[in-house]
Design goal:
alpha+beta, Jelly Rolls, DNA-binding, 4-stranded antiparallel sheet, homodimer
DNA sequence: ACTTTGAATTGACCTATATCAAGCGTATTT
DNA sequence: AAATACGCTTGATATAGGTCAATTCAAAGT
């Protein structure tokens, strides 16, 4: 099934290890294809994040709502990324986040218990998990540094060079929220930087 | 050696698995005790972070210097925490960070290559690594959310409730930098919140 | 086709926080 | 003990970015 081909390629590429026939059978048996329509929620605040999803197609945003009712986007996700609130997923505690499909979304999803099995039984999967966790540590640290040390304009420039796809795929107000800016500020900032 | 006792306890507690005699011998053979005096650097910008250190005693800060020459503290570290720039450590690339001892510092340190061995050979060590990586993911996500959604004052309150030790161990200007504030702002903020 | 909704832009104004500067007290250094 | 440096506070001022409101335009729903 073509859904899974991209998934298998991804695992092998990231992990640097091959998947056997059996491995692939096992993954297919326990990763369920699931579709979400635009605006639908993969996860809602207060719920436990029971599933982790691998995005086959589409996009999503992870956001919180603060006391004043303002939304803050923490993550924007595209194809070949994992979708979950990891805190809730690992600890099975209620999530503080919402994960909403921004375009029609297709994922392959599985549960925490299943993932534990894969980690034990599939060397490529376990190697992948380690690489992802490293990358994740690095990326979050970078983002934190960027948020602390750079001005709004520098953060926008940084986004353009690191994730140019974002500009194509996400509306500007989402990008603004992801950068920690009001939509107005981002709009003005673009006008000035083009001069 | 009492240095190692605390280290072994830590590994077993975090991982939930026991260390055998052999495991402990192996760790002692390849984790080297190292001391740094206050103000000494564990890592300097531009160098590769060859070692990861487990803090037995003392404290340190991880910071960058931006284009305008301003320092930004990304991490404040105390006993039973790991000390490294993980990006540089994993990838063996030059670091953008400085890690400086804020008090006299005692660590147990080892290299990337050795850590790989431990992960393979010591189940408790590998389990610990997974837990730490999960915790780390969760903590950074939380910090990111806090930085984005909260005002300076709320971030300070948050720090007080999550890391009360910090107030005892770190000077106020370091705390300010960690919170992304100028020392003046933090000073004023304390005055107002006590009212 | 008509209506509604929502994204983007622009202007006027406001506020949180930074910056600059001075003064004070307490560690550190010599 | 004197000298120096450094951390903290306080005041005056500057500024980046937020908020509120109005307008335009395009997309989506009926």
């Amino acid at each position: 099934m073509s859904n899974f081909e991209a998934f298998f390629d991804y695992i092998q590429e990231i992990s640097g290890k091959p998947l056997s026939e059996d491995d692939e059978q096992l993954l297919m048996a326990h990763f369920k294809p699931k579709k979400f329509r635009k605006r639908q929620y993969f996860l809602q605040e207060g719920d436990v994040c029971k599933y982790i999803g691998f995005i086959v197609k589409g996009s999503a945003r992870t956001y919180t709502v603060d006391d004043k009712g303002h939304e803050h986007i923490l993550k924007l996700s595209l194809e070949n990324w994992w979708l979950a609130d990891f805190e809730s997923f690992y600890k099975l505690t209620p999530s503080r986040f919402n994960i909403e499909a921004l375009e029609n979304l297709e994922v392959l999803q599985s549960t925490n218990a299943q993932i534990e099995e894969f980690l034990k039984d599939i060397p490529a999967f376990s190697a992948m998990a380690n690489v992802i966790s490293q990358n994740n540590t690095i990326a979050t640290q970078k983002r934190m540094q960027t948020a602390m040390s750079y001005t709004a304009e520098e953060r926008y420039e940084d986004l353009i060079s690191n994730y140019p796809q974002f500009l194509q795929r996400f509306p500007q107000n989402m990008i603004a929220s992801y950068l920690g800016l009001s939509p107005e500020t981002l709009s003005r900032l673009k006008k000035n930087s083009s001069k």
